[in-house]
Amino acid sequence: MKTHIYPAIKITVALLVLLAVIYPAVVWAIAQLAPNHGKGAVISYHNQNYYKNIGQSFTDETYFWSRPSAVAYNAAGSGGSNKGPSNPEYLTEVKARIDTFLKKNPEVSKAQVPVDLVTASGSGLDPDISVAAAKVQVARIAKARAIDANSVQSLVDAHVQKPLWGMFGPEKINVLELNIALDQMTEK
C-alpha cells in the first residue's frame, strides 16, 4: 500500500502546485503585457465604460441590433442554448425573433434576414455581427434617425473588420463600436 499511496500523494501535491499556483501565475504575468493588463478591451463613451469584446444588448430602432444572447448578455454565465434546431421551443423562439425583425424592418424579406440576427452564438456574448447583418439594418436606422442611408452605409463599410491575416474567419463588425460611431455621427 505504501508503494502506491506515497507516489499518489506526491503527484497530487505536485499537480496542485503546478495547476493551481504556477500556471495561473504565468497566465497572469502574460496578461500584464496585454493592453489594459488583461482586463479586457474597454471603450469609454459618455463617462461610461463598455467591454468591446463582450456583446451588448441593442434593441432600439435607432441602433444596429446585436446578436441575440442565450444568457442575457451576462458574462458571468457565458454559454449557449442546448436546444437543437429540431427543438419546438427553440424554433418558436427563432420564429419570434424573425417576426420581430421583419416587423421593425418592413423593407426586408424573410429570406434576407441573416442567421446571426436571430440565433445566439455558442458563448451568448458575441460582440460582432456579419457585414450582411449590418447592411440589412441600414434602411431602418436611416429612417429612425432621419439621416441619409448612404451615410449609414458608409459608416458600416468603415467598420468592417477583415479576417485574421486575411484568411481566418469571416468579415465582421463590432456592434458596440458601430453604434458609438453612429451616435457620434449624428451628434455633430
Poorly predicted parts: none
Query: Roughly what percent helix?
Result: 40-55%
The percent range for strand residues is 5-15%
Strands, count: 4
Number of individual domains = 2
Mean pLDDT across all amino acids: 90
Coarse morphology: elongated
Q: Kindly, what is the distance between the CA atoms of the first and last residues, rounded to a whole number of angstroms?
A: 79 Å
Pfam family, one: KdpC
Membrane topology: Single-pass membrane protein
Subcellular location: Cell membrane
Protein name: Potassium-transporting ATPase KdpC subunit
Please explain how this structure is put together.
- It is a single-pass membrane protein.
- It is found in: Cell membrane.
- This is Potassium-transporting ATPase KdpC subunit.
- GO terms for molecular function: ATP binding; hydrolase activity; P-type potassium transmembrane transporter activity.
- The protein is mainly alpha-helical and 188 residues long.
- The chain has 2 domains: 1-39; 40-187, no CATH class.
- The chain has helices spanning 2-31, 88-104, 131-135, 138-145, 149-158, 175-187; strands spanning 42-45, 48-51, 128-130, 172-174.
- A two-stranded antiparallel sheet has the order 1-2.
- The mean pLDDT is 90.
